[in-house]
Amino acid sequence: MKDDERLREALLELETLRDREAQRLRETRALLAAVEALNTSTDVDEGLEALLASSRASLNCDGVVLFEASGDDLTLRLPASSEPAVWTAPGLLTRSRRIINLQGIQGLWQPPPPALAAWRSLLTVPLIDGETRMVLAAHDVQPGKFTSADAELIGRLATIAGQAILRRSLERRNAFLATVIDRSPTSVTIAEVSDEMPLIYLNDAFVDLSGYTREEMLDRNCRFLTAEAPDAPGRIAIRKAVARRGSGTFVLRNRRKDGTEFWNQLQLFPIENQDGTATHMVATQTDVTDRVRAEEERDEARRRLESALAATSEAFLILGREGHVRFSNDPFQALLDIAWLERNVPVPHTIAARLLDRPLETMPERVIEAFNEPVSHEFTARDGRQFLLRAQPIPDGGAVITASDITRLKVNERALRQRLAAIERSEDGIAIGDAEGRIVDANPSLAALWGIEEGTVALGRKWTSFYEPASIDVTLRDQSQYRSTGALRGEAEIETAAGRRTHEVSLSLVPDVGSILVVRDVTDRLHDQVERDEMRRRLDRGQMQERLHQVSAGLAHDFNNLLSAILGSAALLETTPELSEAGRAALVRIQTAAGRAAELIDGLLDLGSREKSAETIDLKKVLASTVDLARGGAPSSAQLSFVAPKEPLFLQASQTDVLQVAMNLVVNAIDALGGMPGEVRVTLTHPATRDSHQEPTAGKLQAGRTYAAIAIEDTGTGMSAETVARVFEPYFTTKGNTGTGLGLAIVASIVADTGGCIDVDSAVGRGTKITVWWPTDLPVAADGSTERPRSDRTDLPLLILDDAPEVAAALAVVLSEAGFEVAETDDPEFAIETISEDPAGWGCLITDYDMPKLTGGDVVERLSIVAPDLPVIVVSALARRLTDPRLARASNVLQKPVPNDTLISAVREATGGAA
Amino acid sequence: MKIDVFAENGTDLTELGNKFDAWLATHDRPADFVAIHKSVGCRPAKLTPRLEGVTAVHGATSCLGVMSDAGPRIQNGAGAFAIWDDAGDYGTAMRPFEHDPRASARNAVEAALLAADRPSEAPDLIWLSSSPGHEEAVLAGIEDVVGGNVPIMGGSAADDTVAGEWLVYDSEGSASAGVVISVLFPSTKVSFAYHNGYAPTPRSGIVTAADGRLLKAIDDRPAADVYREWVGEGVIPDQVNGTTAILSESTLSPLGQYLDSVGDVPYYLLSHPASLTPEGHLELFADVEAGDQLTLMNGSPDQLTRRAGKVAALAAQSGSFQPDELAGALMVYCGGCMLAVRDRLDDVTSGVTEALPDVPFLGIFTFGEQGVVLDGRNRHGNLMISAILFGA
């Protein structure tokens, strides 16, 4: 680098530094002048005036002034000699400004007042300290007068001016405060820090409070006021505070000069010098007697409240503004299991979470919300109880939190809801009426029952208005009974779109509610009841007839057998030559009487003859009715059920027969339960096929016919095999004196007569299942066995079969006399076996029908297989009642007692001889 | 107060725009003031529309490009100097020259003050960009409004080949002949320096005939003859048929107008001879008047290279700034000087970063520089270098 260039650069740098130093020198001089101006002045205002003058000189301008702001108005304050001027220029308060020419702001700002009209350049700095707002301004008539250095300088001058203004403010403030303290209604005392702590200042209010004169109190320790013992806690506390030159608030009992006591709230604080050493103790003192008494009363009220709350079962918690527990009673602590919860202990947020006994992230916020607005929340405790938690803000910023056990309430509420739902969905119409009987509320079913629109149509009307007046039972009109018993029940009829319906109406008077009306449509039930009554009537009649039939048949059977023996014997005697006339006359009387007896017996048979009128019945419906009837008489421990195909099962049968069969079996099944809980199930199956190869317990299935199976099962005691074998015998009963022994005999008889059979499946302890196989088609016509060509059996012996040996003997005598060779037996199996051995060796079989092991029908059926050509004559005491279709194969069926000639003719005809 | 600088080469204008966007996106709010300077190859439309929300957008073309603390960017270079200053006020206005450049400047500065919401107040600094030709009138127009106590710093808009393609612009529009003025009321201190890197020679004379920037005669002799004699034979043509550019030939030999002396050392404001006329006149880049004393100045590439850093250091010294007290800086570097030391621009920027370590700065290359000279007045000169520093 050339020396010349280095020189030029060095000079330039020097020049720059010189300029900079010159600027600083100027600033320093100006600031020194300003400080000197302030410090050499006797008061602040005078100092400020001097500062403005020195600033004007430093800035080399026309003037420097101080504005004081009030709102947007700037009032020219200093120099005091200035012409008064107020300028609305808020822009000068917001920032420092270097205005080139005030004329340039015309139209943008308010123009300066006339006193300032000559100003062009303006340099301003706002001085804002609290409420004091002033503007230091330099001005000049020359536009663009001020440089940025001037702006920087006035900024520094403003700092000094600001401190002076602040000092002035402080002086004024101190004077003001002194006046305030002197005249303050609050007592103020100042004691000098020393061993005795004498009072050096006290204000008028303290004189008034104590009753002493100022002179009496100055230079004394203020303890002369106290009414407390030296060792009272308050005095000890204040002594400690004074000893450590500390501060604090104390409430002490003091005594005035006149001896009256008052509560004095004393606030103590030290005044320290620059070294931090306390030089004085200041005390403000306030008579708080009224407040202390109010607090005592409040504490007493709180104690009473706490006693009351402690006794309540409702959990109760009071929180202070900061979340401190002010009060909590035992139920609350028990609820939360927070026995450690003590007063004035801040409640951690976790407690809020425990309030609900479950993870509740939001709960702290909810509790916090309680400090602002009420919060209500239900929760379930760990033990299942339900609680209603309510948090309510209280005026002092805290909150009251209560938790009520609402478990019972919720249960009742749930039950009530269930009841309401039940009422709403009940098929019965239910309404509430007022004292006048007018409907005030009703469920939907009632409107449906009355055929009206659901809702308000029924409201306000009396229930009676919906029924035909004449159809309302008189019992429903008995107001005296209603008043005395509070309940009425009866029926009434109503005409609806569905036809005429009968309603059962019940009225109940419920205190505090009104009258409860319950309406039920019983039309179908009544109709069913009529049908059931008719069935029961027919059943009863049928059973009575059947019993008569059984008794008369039994009598006729036995009498006819006796008469057969008598008449047979009489006929034998008649053939005796040596019989005297008198003997013959007696014989004739015997025969006449016996014949008359036979006629009487025949007439007796008519007494119990069963109705056999077949009709078209729905077997399913009859069985269902039977179960319903039986259920009415069954103990509640017996569960009756009926299972059947969906479709009805129509067939030709006597409804009375079906009823008797089913009712006897169902009643027996119920009886088999022995009063113990059990089940009786009736099952109808159609078509049904009997797969068992065992002989039915009663009756027989007829080939080619279709059957329905009626199964009656019970879970009762069951029967032994011996009992099962005899169960259908007449007069056999397991019920002792309560049974007739005829029920199942009738059942077997009816079923056998229809061409059906009965299976009994039972074992002791396993229950019983009785299956009735009931034909559902018409009987098959018997083939015409009489059409078969007959061989001549005139010379062949006859076989007489009768379980009554005397009858067989009588018949044998008659036929022997007529020239026949005769053999006798009382055992059907033996007879069949004998004939089977030589079917062609016998001329004819004369057999009884009612025998213990096999009936005459059975014998006919079996012989039709082993000896189809053998003529069979059935001689029965109940021949008129025989309906066994198998007897169509028999050559003849004769009524006991059979006249001798009739018997002989029948045998001759059967064996191929002349009749 | 926060300052950030963007400087990139913009051969691909779309890519340049994307980079500018990315730079803007690094700031959470629009700046209070943005000065954009770039070569004529990069049209204003590429950058200024992206500055929505910026109170003051100041723009002017710069010769070839810009330089910054990241180095020179003179291939379609573009740069932006942005200030975020909540407590400060900034306003910009551009006015095309119509009949009276001085009136345009007056108009522009008033509008800028109004835009800053500081009408009739003296800003701490005025940043000026004018199209070449009427800078003296522009300075006068500005001082008509703000007086002579407001520093005016800036540089004339430039193009790459002195073909008159320069532009000045603001957010409203652009003009090839006009002035854009920004008034700056920053909340922090500002300092500046405005110097050149030339030394006087013993050759000097008095202007005896001149017309604005047309220097007709020195010491009653044709100006071209005197100048040719001063610089020596062969530097400029002996005779020309038409007006002939001598800009590059005269870069190291400008004419100086005496300004002031520091001690016994004189200082000069430079005028750069731009062309030679057949009449033997010299066309300058600055006005001269009859009676002015002109001195032949002498510069060297070394001086021009070092000078930028020296000026920056001088500005810091002037403001008593330590580098860590600075938020950023603007540098104005004569375009002619830049062309003379084009190959050493890295050294130029290094000089500045040495003087202002870790301070972001944007340097522009201008055809005429304005600043405050030693006597405190705002002046227009050629081949000058200036630096403006903003406190943090």
Structural notes for this entry:
The complex is a heterodimer of chains A (915) and B (392). Chain A is α+β, with helices and mostly antiparallel strands. The longest helix of chain A has 52 residues, at 523-574. Chain A has a six-stranded antiparallel β-sheet. In chain A, strands 23-25-27-29-28-26 form a six-stranded mixed β-sheet. Helices cover 40% and strands 24% of the residues of chain A. The radius of gyration of chain A is 66 Å and the shape is rod-shaped. In chain A, strand 7 (187-192) and strand 8 (199-202) form a beta hairpin. Chain B has 392 residues and is α+β, with helices and mostly antiparallel strands. Chain B is 22% helix and 39% strand. Chain B has helices at residues 13-25, 101-115, 135-146, 223-231, 247-250, 301-318, 335-340, 345-355; strands at residues 2-9, 33-38, 56-61, 66-68, 71-73, 77-84, 89-96, 125-130, 152-156, 168-170, 174-175, 178-185, 190-196, 199-211, 214-218, 221-222, 244-245, 255-262, 265-271, 273-276, 282-284, 293-298, 326-334, 361-366, 369-372, 378-381, 384-391. In chain B, strands 14, 15, 16, 17, 18, 19, 20, 21 and 22 form a nine-stranded antiparallel β-sheet that branches. In chain B, strand 8 (125-130), helix 3 and strand 9 form a beta-alpha-beta unit. In chain B, helix 2 crosses helix 3 and helix 6 (301-318) runs parallel beside helix 8 (345-355). The N and C termini of chain B lie close together (6 Å). Chain A binds chain B through residues 1-2, 4-5, 7-9, 11-17, 19-20, 97-105, 108, 143-148, and chain B through 118-122, 124, 145-151, 193, 195, 199, 262-263, 265, 267, 302-303, 306, 310, 314, 317-318, 320, 374.
